[in-house]
Amino acid sequence: MVKRNSLIFLTAFGLLLTGCGKSGLEITKDDILEVARDDANATKSECENVSIKEQKGSYMVSFNTNGGSYEYKIGKDGIIKERSFKRGAKEETAETEKVEEPVKEETTKKEEKSSTSFDEGQQQAINSALANSGLVQDDVSNITCSLDSNTNQYTVTFVLNDVTTTAVVDAATFTVISTILG
């Protein structure tokens, strides 16, 4: 029920943001923080050291959770432009991705679909990665999924419009940790 309520909220929020952009209303810093927290799958009480700074038509948002630290560049329209995640103090590298707005193109060449079968956990990880990108399995080709038992994370890779996407999904919660295009 929580996921369904979140989906309804996100849909309503997305419609609100769409309407705001057309009516000249500006999104508040609280709205921008909510977008970042929702993307990080973090509640208000889980976030510490929250910082929101306005920069050249965007907001720079950062905060820490028990899982790590997050940094976002979010446009005043509420669209995430860049995100960065650094896991705890144990790792020194951060995963950063530049978020590009989806381009809708008609392709005349039908991409070859993968006919590989996956176990239940792999399929759930694939579904999470695709849903996070707003896709379904029939939209993409060349899907692969592997479990790293050391980190308890699935790595899901798929191709859409000749662009390879790699997503890392937590094997316990099936939450998408990162998505990298390219």
Describe this structure in words.
The two termini are 34 Å apart. This protein has 182 residues and is an alpha+beta fold. Helix content is 26%, strand content 36%. It has a five-stranded antiparallel sheet, covered by helices on one side. A four-stranded antiparallel sheet has the order 6-7-8-9, covered by helices on one side. Strand 6 (141-148) and strand 7 form a beta hairpin.
C-alpha geometry: globular
Q: Which secondary-structure class do the elements indicate?
A: alpha+beta
Query: Taking Cα atoms only, what radius of gyration do you get, to the nearest Å?
Result: 17 Å
Q: Figure out the total of helices.
A: 3
Helix content: 25-40%
Can I get a quick summary?
The chain is an alpha+beta fold and 182 residues long.
Primary descriptors:
182 residues, five-stranded antiparallel beta sheet, 3 helices, 9 strands, 36% strand
Helix and strand arrangement:
Blueprint lengths: L1 H22 L5 H12 L7 E8 L2 E8 L2 E8 L4 E8 L7 E4 L21 H13 L8 E8 L4 E8 L2 E8 L5 E6 L1
Antiparallel strand pairs: 1-2, 2-3, 3-4, 4-5, 6-7, 7-8, 8-9
